[in-house]
Amino acid sequence: MRHQYLYLDPDLIKALLAGLDLLRLFNQLVLATGGDVEEAQEWMRYLQSEGHIPQNIDLEAFFASLQEQNLVGRDSEGGLQLTTGGERRIRKSAFEEIFATLGRSGAGYHPIRASGEGIERLPETRPYNFGDDIHLLDSARSLQNAFKRNNSGGSRRSEDDDFNLMEEDLEVYETEHLTSCATVVAIDISHSMILYGEDRITPAKTVALALTELITTKYPKDDLSVVLFGDQAEQVFLSEIPYIQAGPYHTNTRDALQLSRSILARQRQPNKQIFLITDGKPSAITEGGRVYKNPFGLDMRIVNLTLEEADLCRRQKVVITTFMLATDTMLTQFVEKLTQINRGRAYFASPYNLGEFILADYIRNRRRRVR
Fold it and tell me: What are the chain's domains?
């Protein structure tokens, strides 16, 4: 049985319609409908019938253009579906949406730069030290230093005077220390992610898509995996992200951490981290191949085994960053305890700034080695 909940953020829809960005609106609707192209198109027709999209906009021509651009195609049964190009465009759209927010607000985005040998050259320079890469030499500034030193006597030197360049004149560009990183994004798909009149699963998908685009374009040596967890945890291919949906599940956080830890154990990157996106308490564990569930309160059997898994992650140098989409006192205390045991990080965010927190955190913390 397919369980689906659709919530359209009015402010986001208004912003997209204000600029008549039909493609971004379409992409947002496709995410909200779990990858259902035909339902997304019906929503656009509905928005036009309600006067939100001007009547002079030819939506059918727009839909036809999606097929012409190979963003949408027909499946074996004649239904519409996203193509590989369409999935790629959604990833790019998610990336642009979140980074536009980062650029406007700036809040939470403070990259930490560590000087040292790396792959990205910074505009700042420093005096040359023996052993520095000669390719990082700033020739213009080095020559400027030499001219200043040679003319420091106060009198103008003649053309016959010798000009010498000394080691003390040399300056080299600073570099940004970047270490490769393996990340697992663990997304809660339990029933609470679509309850209380708020769609939390779509922002989680948007974040995973944006991370995918960021890593493949800027950090190709990094690794990103996606784990979904409800009654149990499962790894999914990155191409499946647009189609993720929440269902009638409990929250097996322990299973998510176990699976994420096993995935990271196979990776060679020095930095290993889990981004845990959830809005509820752990309410299930897997023991002996069976799932034990208790949705009432905090079951200490479930809680303690989940905390033990967080400690195992710490011992294997896997940092857990929890993005909590709820602020209940009881749940907050659990997350704080998990964070303390793992020595990780925790953010209490709303679905509307989730992407800003996660991408800023990813960029900032991949710049230093996790110890």
Answer: 10-82 (no CATH), 115-150+162-176 (no CATH), 181-365 (3.40.50.410)
